[in-house]
Specification:
Blueprint (H helix, E strand, L loop, with lengths): L3 E5 L12 H11 L4 E5 L1 H4 L2 H4 L9 E4 L2 E4 L1 H11 L8 H31 L6 H23 L11 H11 L11 H11 L2 H15 L6
Parallel strand pairs: 1-2
Antiparallel strand pairs: 1-3, 3-4
Helix pairs in contact: 1-4, 1-7, 1-9, 5-6, 5-7, 7-8
Bound molecules: S-(P-nitrobenzyl)glutathione (GTB).
The site of S-(P-nitrobenzyl)glutathione has 12 residues, from helix 4.
Amino acid sequence: MSPIVTAFEQSPDRGRGLARDMPVRWAFEEVGQPYDVRLISFSAMKESGHRSRQPFGQIPTYEDGNLVLFESGAIVLHIAERHSGLLPEDADARARAIAWMFAALSTVEPGIVQREVSLYLERDKAWHEERLLLVEARIRRRLDDLAARLGAGEWLDGSFSAGDLLMVQVLRRLGGSGILEDYPNLVAYVARGEARPAFKRAFAAQLAVFTGRSSQS
Ligand code: GTB
């Protein structure tokens, strides 16, 4: 039996591949591991059955036999450790790739999520404009450093890794913000990620859920 991932029955991103089942799908595609998807409604996500798998009532989750996991980063790491293709064989290079996974989720992403919170939940506040400027300045500071480190490189540390997968996915959340465009090497980096056949397969699979063309249940 293939591992099962949970994803939104109706994703608020309308098929843009921004929900967190996307990096998990992408990881499965990179390593060539088939997977099944269980679509879940917002109300079912908050019920005890789902909460037993995901304590915070969120997607995604991962089930494989007796193993149940939550947290998209942990799931991607698990897939990368179980299969070859997403982490280098060399122990030091592997540790560095894992460091980039953490950097994506705990150093680069928080500001990007705060910007979304500001845009979607704080627009009516008197301090909204001021806060948005602060948050965007913080994002730019991170991107300044990330762009400097990537330089003219193709990927963050040698070959494509799970660190790049998560970093590209995090940067994709800036689409339409006008921020990423100020960093041509990061724009090209995201485009390289999105051009990977595995990304395209994962993107198409989640889009099919939105357009109603999915055969997965
Ligand atoms: N840290 C956890 C992880 O990485 O797995 C975070 C999981 C999480 O935030 N899940 C979100 C969720 O279940 C969906 S992905 N939210 C429902 C809830 O908390 O009640 C986040 C997301 C949602 C929508 C968009 N979008 O519309 O663009 C993008 C990202």
